[in-house]
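Researcher: I'd like a structural prediction for the single chain below. Treat it as a standalone chain; there are no partners to consider.
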Amino acid sequence: QVELMESGGGSVQAGGSVRLSCDASKYTRSFYCMGWFRQVPGKEREGLAAIDSDSSPRYTDSVKGRSTISLDTAKKIMYLQIESLKPEDTAMYYCAVVGTRVGCSLEGPRARVFWNNGYWGRGTQVSVSS
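Model: Treating it as a single chain, here is the predicted structure.
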């Protein structure tokens, strides 16, 4: 069983920033896709950003333009820096890894199936106050 560990969440003032980390060092495949998601109770999981083992990033409109996803391929640690935080960014943030770069996407009809086949962390809470 692969364990992913998110960290970096906490309480932040609106307008501030957060840097989330996802440790996937126990994942042994060389080709993979990793992603960041968030979920608020009662709402569907929302994809934010993804990056593959070639370090090609993808973003959804939720955080595009104010976030940066990066990957330390040697350590298999993924980061997500989000700037200009808003109260509506308050959520539990999760990371996931899937063992292929093919289909590495956050949107479209196959995205949910793609990520449901991956390994997930337990999440880190980000709370943004106004």
